[in-house]
Amino acid sequence: MAEQEKRTCRVMVIGSSKPRLAKVMSLLLPLEQEPQQHEESSSSISVEYLPCVAAFDSYEDEHGKPIRYLTSVNYHGSDGADKVGSSLAPFFDQEPAAPENDNIDETKKKKSTRQSSYLGILGAAVGMGIEDSDDIDKLQTFFQTLRSRLPLKVVQPSPPFPSMKEETAAFRALSPEEKEEMALQQTMGPAKMAKFAYKYAHNDLIQAILDQERDEREQELKQERQRQEEELRREEETRQQLLQAAQQAPIIMDETKPRFACRVCRTVLFAQADLETHDPAKHKFRQYTKKQQASSCQSYFLTDGGCPWAGDMADVEGRLHCPKCQTKVGTWHWAGAQCSCGTWVSPAIQVPKSKVDTLNPLLGGEGGNSMFPPGTVISPFIAAAATVPPTTT
């Protein structure tokens, strides 16, 4: 099986300080390159980070109250080190569009989305000087102008610090050796933010997509199983209806000619008029004399309409069963079959002579011993209920 093509997504990393952003990216990008054997997301979806700096400013209203506002959110290169930022609009212009055709089946839409190589911008990890809830709301409003709501997650302070501002101040007061230890533990400073952004991208955003796709696939499989079961149920209902109709349908048989009944339950199955012409000149397979042919034939072959009691015969071949006792009485092969006499009959609805008894004509006229009056419409079950035993040949 060919290896599944690896898909990509984008996750924004937003801070208020460009130098701190660049430091975080210098620690985050190596994490993304490391093989993560135990993470499903790393084996199927790769992440492209968008390092961004959010700039805020303020002004005083008519009452002298400072009003803070967001001035810009700019992209600073893949490593966050570009001195001059650029607009995020080109990235949002590349967002995958939903299928425009509303007539497309919802399942096909989901499959199309799963097969896309680019999954879009999934969310944003926020920190590095941005933690106020009002600032987060301003960022959310800004992104709503570019697209629908974008998930944002803000890094949280570690105990015992009440806020990231106090935690950052404490980190700056550490000695170089202590900062190195914190970087190894990834519990404070830029290393903590790098680990936070990585975990948010893989454990939250990408894992949510994988979980959703797994649920969708399971739901599709469940629906497909239900569809197949429903089709089988309908096919079985149709088969039973056809079989029941065939069993209940009256059969007109001429008692002045031989009829043939199931050897087990004596149900009349077919009459001489239902037999396929067995003419070696027409169905020649090997050359036999008429005498040899007559003495060698071990089966009867019926016409297409000679066994309405057989039910559904849509398959290429199958077995014939007595409609009353379900004993196997023959087979059908639409491609044809060879008689024991050597004649090839196509199509072949074949009943071995050993499976049926022959009811010989009983021509008694008035006071005769006919099982049924000539011309009587009988069903196989009425015939089976007859008390006069058939003559076996």
From TrEMBL:
**For the region Disordered, what residue ranges are annotated?**
91-112
- Entry's EC annotation: 3.1.3.48
Q: Which residues form a coiled coil?
A: 207-245
C2H2-type domain sequence ranges: 262-283
Signal peptide positions are none
What superkingdom heads the lineage? Eukaryota
PANTHER family recorded for this chain?
A: DUAL SPECIFICITY PROTEIN PHOSPHATASE 12 (PTHR45848:SF4), DUAL SPECIFICITY PROTEIN PHOSPHATASE 12 FAMILY MEMBER (PTHR45848)
Family to which this protein belongs: Belongs to the protein-tyrosine phosphatase family. Non-receptor class dual specificity subfamily.
Write the protein's name: protein-tyrosine-phosphatase
**What organism is listed for this UniProt entry?**
Seminavis robusta
